[in-house]
Design goal:
The complex is a heterotrimer of chains A (about 290), B (about 325) and C (about 325). By secondary structure, chain A is mostly helical. Chain A has a single domain, classed as MetI-like (MetI-like fold). Chain A is built from eleven helices and no strands. Chain A starts with a helix and ends with a helix. Chain B is mainly α and about 325 residues long. Chain B folds into two domains: about 60 residues, no CATH class; about 220 residues, MetI-like fold. Chain B contains 13 helices and no strands. Chain B is globular, with a radius of gyration of 24 Å. In chain C, strand 8, helix 7 and strand 9 form a beta-alpha-beta unit. Chain C is built from eleven helices and twelve strands. In chain C, helix 3 packs parallel to helix 6 and helix 6 packs parallel to helix 7. In chain C, strands 7-8-9-4-10-11-12 form a seven-stranded mixed beta sheet, sandwiched between helices. In chain C, strands 1, 2, 3, 5 and 6 form a five-stranded antiparallel beta sheet that branches. Chain C has a domain of about 80 residues. The chains are: A mainly alpha (about 290), B mainly alpha (about 325), C alpha/beta (about 325). Chains A and B meet through helix 5, helix 6, helix 9, helix 10 and helix 11 of A and helix 1, helix 6, helix 7, helix 10 and helix 11 of B.
Chain lengths: ~290, ~325, ~325
């Protein structure tokens, strides 16, 4: 099962690349997602207007050559707001999932390796967190701590951590009692470092799949919280917040809510395509390894 | 069975305690003085000190914690800062409406999701399979409020088939059903996307099992093999997933209630959020926790009903 | 062999789609099954025994498999028969029992109901009637306290008991033919003997024919009237049991018999057969055993030898261009 870390990781990376380029669904997902990332990165170049610029004479304007996707109730350009909104969604989503990935994998390996009360504690905490849907958990945290960017990231990361703990813990436990891990200890290598070196090559495909799927969830949750009114404070453009504002004018100006909705759909769908494709492609391999 | 249920209940005590502690801690780290919030900025120092005593804020933290737990145990979550109504009464008045929505969505999601998933599995790698897979991936990508808004735009605003805003107060059963339809469809269809996936993979696995071949070798017609043998087994993991999804449904009901302006726990919590009504928030978090614990318990029991291997242990 | 055969297999070939090409897993299988007869199909795993059985029930099909040749059950052609017709034959006329009693039963259906299902599907009788019949068969295969155990689930039974239930299920409609696919392989040795005895009695009492698949020649001796030895998807030799054991003619059969450890013989020279069974994709056009055969000549590589008497009695046929000479038998 576990092989020398370097070569295994290299092999897997090559394999992953082959899968990603051979599977049309994954490819489509990657292209779509990279497109969104590019939009977020080059937002100032792409946006046609300042997303915060109000023009009270252009309120609730329908799509036109001047305002491609129309204007909102403050006369702000919707296209530009969506472009800048991509930044918020991606920054929050990526930070939250990366945090959860690092913290979760580390906690998983740690608790699997140490066992005993640490394992008990982490296990209990994981189970409790797992019982809560991410939206409710995010709602609880943000409701009390207030809707700042950091708090949103923390809330979503908290909801995501247990997934990674679970993935990292099981193979660690399986590995712990192997002879050569004992040997590493006898040779005076730091056992935890050894664990990480041997566990990570085994679990990273699964971690990658999980990260993609949970990035999708994180972006969805962020948008949902913003829709509830717990997102990054206005006037910063967020997709969920835009839908919230657009929803107030749903009877007269449908597009206000529809365009940011499509933006969310595109990103989340792209990520789900990647994650789903990867999972299908990696699944037989994972099973063969066991 | 009863013993199993009781055991499960005992196991959920630590969860409940952990959440209560979390809620308590969170209320202590909120910036700002609750007394100030209740009485307003112009309150006199004497009034604030008096309220501190009344709220027990002058006592050491651990005593406050025990006091909080004792109150919860008595079902006392205090009063709303805004309306002065007891939190329990407030929650009780809207709980049925949220439960109604959750259960209706659960039914819709299962009734649509399970057959679709089974259908896809039976026609693996052909048109129906591709359709179901694509559709379910799309459903998984739609946030509940986005889908709700889309349904609202199409069926209420454009077609006018359903009311835009849920009627309040006493209405006929038919009116009630009409108002329930769209929110339940919103959550139900999204759930079906998930359930269909799970059913499909479970069904695919079961169709490869030996006992399916045994049933065919007995001369049982294919449709009956599917219904009596394959589906009955494939449904077992689905039960667990449906149960876990109950939590998601409860969470998503917040969004749906906002979109369809439907009274319920979600509306209540969002209202409390905007008004910083902390006792209500506190009470609702505990209530959500209880609901999720109960949902998990019911899932375990349902699992036992569908899976005789567990039942007899 | 008296009477018309109940089952007649001719030129049966089952092909699977492997990597875009059709590969024959079995080729030119010919045999007849007489009423009340037990025919054993013997061979190593992967030689096509189970596939042959499954094709008799019409269980193969769909995208990945193709069946050619003829399988006639009492004159009716099974190959190409529509599914609805096949369903009337499966379980009622021809029943099957499987190797793995642990997985062959539906885990969420009470065992009694699984037996009764076969009855009600074919005989269309009432629930109560089906139950009575099912209970009768449970008792017949010696399941203790059958009425109390009718509603029990498979996981509450031991492996041997489960196999009895599978047998009861197969017997439930009193089929003419029983296909037994290694029914005792997964069981303990003592249970094996009991189940074999049970099957033999049931066949005799219910006047059934049986095709018994096994890889164990010991089991063959205990249960069969005739044996067909299979190698790499073909029947290489077919003969009455006593005849085959006494005077095997095909080099593979001979090697197989020599590979059995025997306690009653002084000289214990166990001989393994050199080489390996070819993979399905590597089958040549000639005799498939030729690469491992000590007597193989160039002619063997060219065309597959037909199954024929080749100088021996009509009931003993062998597919070999250089069979062992017919021996004068002592009795």
């Amino acid at each position: 099962m576990p092989r020398p870390a370097g070569s295994a990781a290299g092999r897997l990376a090559r394999k992953l690349w082959r899968i990603a380029t051979a599977n049309i669904t994954i490819e489509a997902g990657i292209v779509l997602f990279l497109l969104v990332v590019a939009v977020a990165v080059f937002a100032p170049l792409i946006a046609t207007h300042d997303p915060l610029d109000q023009d009270l004479f252009e309120r609730l304007g329908t799509p036109s050559t001047e305002h491609w996707l129309g204007t909102d109730s403050f006369g702000r350009d919707i296209f530009s707001r969506i472009v800048f909104g991509a930044r918020i969604s991606l920054v929050i989503g990526l930070s939250a999932v990366l945090t959860a990935m690092v913290v979760g994998s580390f906690l998983g390996v740690l608790s699997g390796y140490l066992g005993g009360w640490v394992d008990q504690l982490v296990g209990q905490a994981t189970n409790i967190l797992l019982a809560f849907p991410s939206l409710i958990l995010g709602l609880m945290v943000v409701a009390f701590l207030g809707p700042s960017m950091i708090n949103l990231i923390a809330a979503i990361a908290l909801a995501t951590v247990p997934q990674f703990v679970r993935v990292a813990r099981a193979p660690t436990v399986a590995l712990r009692d192997r002879d050569y891990i004992q040997a590493c200890r006898a040779l005076g290598f730091s056992p935890l470092r050894t664990m990480l070196r041997h566990v990570l090559p085994n679990i990273w495909p699964e971690i990658l799949v999980m990260a993609t799927l949970w990035l999708a969830t994180a972006i969805r949750v962020e948008a949902s919280l913003a829709f509830i009114g717990l997102g990054v404070k206005p006037p910063t453009p967020t997709w969920g917040g835009m839908i919230r504002e657009g929803f107030e004018n749903i009877l007269t100006s449908l597009w206000l809510a529809i365009f940011p909705s499509l933006a969310i759909l595109v990103v989340v769908f792209a990520l789900n395509l990647i994650g789903d494709g990867l999972r299908d492609a990696l699944d037989p391999r994972l099973r063969k390894d066991e | 069975m009863a013993r199993y249920a009781i055991l499960k209940l005992i196991y959920s005590v630590p969860t409940l305690l952990a959440v209560l502690t979390l809620v308590f801690v969170l209320t202590r780290v909120i910036p700002g003085d609750p007394a100030l919030m209740i009485l307003g900025d112009q309150a006199s120092p004497q009034a604030i000190a008096a309220l501190h005593v009344q709220l027990g804020l002058d006592r050491p933290v651990w005593m406050q914690y025990l006091h909080f737990l004792a109150n919860v145990a008595h079902g006392d979550f205090g009063k709303s800062l805004v309306t002065g109504q007891s939190v329990v009464d407030l929650a009780a008045s809207v709980l049925p409406s949220t439960l109604e929505l959750t259960i209706a969505s659960l039914v819709v999601g299962t009734v649509i999701g399970v057959p679709l998933g089974a259908w896809a599995a039976i026609h693996r790698n052909s048109m129906p399979d591709a359709l179901v897979r694509a559709g379910s991936l799309l459903g998984l990508s739609l946030p509940a409020f986005v889908f709700g808004i889309l349904l609202l735009i199409v069926f209420s605003v454009q077609l006018g088939w359903f009311p835009v805003i849920s009627p309040t107060g006493r209405v006929s059963a038919l009116e009630n059903l009409r108002a329930l339809a769209l929110p339940a469809l919103t959550l139900g269809i999204l759930m079906a996307a998930y359930i269909a996936r799970v059913t499909r993979s479970s069904m695919l696995q079961i169709l490869g099992e030996d006992f399916i071949r045994t049933a065919r070798a007995k001369g049982v017609p294919w449709r009956m093999v599917i219904r009596r043998h394959a589906l009955r087994n494939a449904i077992i993991p689905v039960v667990t997933v449906v149960g876990l999804y109950l939590g998601v449904l409860i969470g998503n009901s917040v969004l749906t209630e906002m979109v369809f302006n439907r009274p319920g726990l979600g509306k209540l919590i969002v209202g409390a959020l905007t008004q910083r009504d902390y006792p209500v928030l506190q009470g609702l978090m505990v209530l959500y926790t209880l609901l999720i614990i109960i949902a998990n318990l019911l899932t375990d029991l349902a699992y036992g009903i569908f899976n005789p291997t567990v039942r007899l242990r | 062999m008296p009477g018309d055969p109940v089952l007649s297999v001719q030129g049966l070939s089952v092909q699977f789609r492997i990597g875009g090409a059709w590969r024959a897993a079995t080729r030119g299988i010919d045999f007849d099954l007489a009423p009340n007869e037990t025919l054993a199909l013997v061979g190593e795993s992967g030689c096509g025994k189970s596939i042959t059985c499954a094709s008799i029930l019409g269980l193969l099909g769909g995208e990945g498999a193709r069946v050619e040749g003829s399988i006639r059950y009492r004159g009716r052609e099974i190959v190409g028969m529509p599914e609805s017709e096949l369903e009337k034959i499966r379980g009622k006329e021809i029943a099957m029992i499987f190797q793995e009693p642990m997985t062959a039963l539906n885990p969420v259906m009470p065992v009694g109901e699984q037996i009764a299902e076969a009855i009600s599907v074919h005989l269309g009788c009432s629930r109560a009637e089906a139950k009575t019949r099912a209970l009768g068969f449970m008792e017949r295969v010696r399941i203790p306290a059958a009425p109390e155990r009718y509603r029990d689930y498979p996981h509450q039974f031991s492996g041997g008991m489960r196999q009895r239930i599978v047998i009861a299920m197969a017997m439930a409609c009193q089929p003419r033919i029983l296909l037994a696919d290694e029914p005792t392989t997964a069981l303990d040795v003592t249970i094996q003997a009991q189940i074999l005895a049970e099957l033999r009695d049931l066949c005799a009492n219910l006047e059934m024919s049986m095709v018994f698949i096994t890889h164990s020649l010991g089991v063959v001796a205990a249960i069969a009237d005739r044996v067909a030895v299979m190698y790499a998807g073909e029947i290489v030799e077919i003969a009455p049991v006593a005849e085959l054991f006494a005077a095997p003619r095909h080099p593979y059969t001979q090697a197989l018999l020599q590979a059995i450890p025997r306690v009653d013989r002084e000289t214990v020279t166990l001989r393994a057969i050199p080489g390996q069974v070819p993979a399905i994709a590597e089958f040549g056009s000639g005799c498939r055993f030729a690469p491992r055969c000590p007597r193989a000549s160039e002619a063997c590589q060219a065309v597959p030898p037909e199954l024929a008497a080749r100088g021996g009695p009509e009931g003993h046929r062998v597919a070999c261009l250089a069979p062992a000479p017919v021996r004068e038998r002592a009795s």
